[in-house]
């Protein structure tokens, strides 16, 4: 346990606590260990995964009108959550608007997709479902949805060839989107199924926008064989989770952590075996949860729900999947066997065919055995 004196407690924020867990005395050994664990990330946004160094280069080369001289020091607080700012969902979402200015060319978008996959692979992610919003990538420069989709696919394809990782893509529609644009995205997703696009995602502000206007789009996509995942119960009420499942037909729920406040919704998730894509650091940064010690992940897990661990926006939140595993243990009290179960949940919840899922499971199990990752063999004695 970390001992805190009263002065220290006054200065605490969830983000400072997170940094303490991440850089504490035992964290180094654990992070090295957890990085080697072959992992699955089902909830990661391309737009939230961009390297600051690449964004700096783009800002300088294209002389982006950002109202500041782009340096690492000026860009970081613009694009990444800082320890001193209040956790706030709107503030978090606003960063995606700023990022739109950086989608300047085919080369930039291909590179962003390539690097997002490369960074996941370097973190030990063996299976990644990367989601992107073609409308966001296309809008600022007036690109066509079709071309930005091709560029993302090309960047991902190249990275998959260069690194030890399997990638599938999910196309994101934001709540409140023009239904005509949403239809075009859904049609594109279906058209690119052979290129690794497996699903459709509904994201954005669940407090302001219901899904009603997009309902026919999601129904059609499901009929066409796409998997659906819906951001719900992140900062909004548990009723949004029920709606995502019963009305939109979601196969998985993005976040869904507010389910913990509603027994009926918990029962629904349990009965239908709907997986939750939990992203702990993101929940701190959006203000959905006041700290890891208050995070409902352990409760949801112990209730037998299919919880998975994911990153959401590794660049905006300055995190990795390795870190999220570390926080689940050191910040929320889960144990090594629990992490292995959560990893299994990730494999079972993957938007793959049963045969592909079996192959993925076989491959990861083989790797886990080779790692010798039996409970008790990690550096548990030094857990913070
Ligand atoms: Zn998300």
**Overall residue-averaged pLDDT value:** 93
Overall shape: globular
The CATH superfamily name is: Metal-dependent hydrolases
Low-confidence stretches at least 5 residues in length (pLDDT < 50)? 1-10, 379-384
User: How helix-rich are the residues, as a percent range?
Assistant: 40-55%
* Helical run tally: 18
Helix and strand content put the structural class at alpha/beta
Q: Write the H/E string, N to C.
A: HHHEHHHHEHHEHEHEHEHEHHEHHH
CATH architectural name = Alpha-Beta Barrel
Which ligands appear in the coordinates?
A: zinc ion
Task: Give the beta-strand count.
Answer: 8
Tell me the strand percentage band: 5-15%
CATH class: Alpha Beta
Biggest sheet descriptor: 8 strands, parallel
Protein name: adenosine deaminase
Enzyme class: hydrolase
GO molecular function, one term: metal ion binding
Family: Belongs to the metallo-dependent hydrolases superfamily. Adenosine and AMP deaminases family.
What does this protein structure show overall?
The chain has 384 residues and is an alpha/beta fold. The chain has a single domain (12-372), classed as Metal-dependent hydrolases (TIM Barrel). It is built from 18 helices and 8 strands. Strands 1-2-3-4-5-6-7-8 form an 8-stranded parallel beta sheet. Strand 6, helix 13 (263-272) and strand 7 form a beta-alpha-beta unit. Helix 7 packs parallel to helix 9. The chain starts with 5 loop residues before the first helix and ends in a 13-residue tail after the last helix. The relative contact order is 0.14. The site of zinc ion (ZN) has 6 residues, from strand 1. Residues 38-364 form the Adenosine deaminase domain. InterPro entries: A_deaminase_dom, Ado/ade_deaminase, Metal_Hydrolase. Its cofactor is Zn(2+). This is adenosine deaminase.
